[in-house]
Amino acid sequence: MKAMILAAGRGERMRPLTDHTPKPLLPVAGRALIDYHLEALARAGLHEVVINHAHLGTQIEAAIGSGSRHGLRISYSPEPEGALETGGGILQALPKLGPEPFVVINGDIWTDYDYARLPQTLEGLAHLVLVDNPPQHPDGDFHLHSDGRVHEAGGERLTFSGIGVYHLELFTGCEPGRFPLAPLLRRAIAAGRVSGEHFAGRWFDIGTPQRLRELDRELTGTAGERD
Known about the structure:
Blueprint: E1 3-6, E2 27-28, E3 31-32, H1 33-43, E4 48-53, H2 57-64, E5 73-78, H3 85-97, E6 102-106, E7 109-111, E8 126-131, E9 142-144, E10 150-151, E11 157-166, H4 182-190, E12 194-199, E13 203-205, H5 209-220
């Protein structure tokens, strides 16, 4: 199974940190944020990885290279200025991802989730990893039914972690260009073709400089210190 890391976002909310450094290369506990994903994928045996990029993308390629130092084979999917959003970025990379189900990970999260837990095959079109709702997203996104299916409503809602396994068929009918992934997922959910799991481990959405600092303190053991 191949994996893709979404790394094309401009990181507007992270400015000025992202004015000269792409968000995936921002340091956390002395290492680039994307390195944590790469090492976790290697541990899980997912050795073929596609990384998309747009803003300052050449820096990402220069820093990571072929992926050999992580034991990976990395290819890149460059996007035009402004990027293609999540859906458009994945669609463009499909030829590199192949016909089998593939993993997609948001590049601006940090987690200790074990990617080896992800299903290698799908009964439907997608499998989503859901987490407890963080303070910045208290209402969540989806409900996980006891049968393992994801629903829009029906009970307590959880937050989509930015980790999923997708089938090529999810993108049937999509035209190249800029578009989000969420409408495709919601359409598949309405058709009853999305499974999910609840992950209760550590997960951080690195959307602001403050959250980046909080993660840095968490990983360096200085969580009790003030900014």
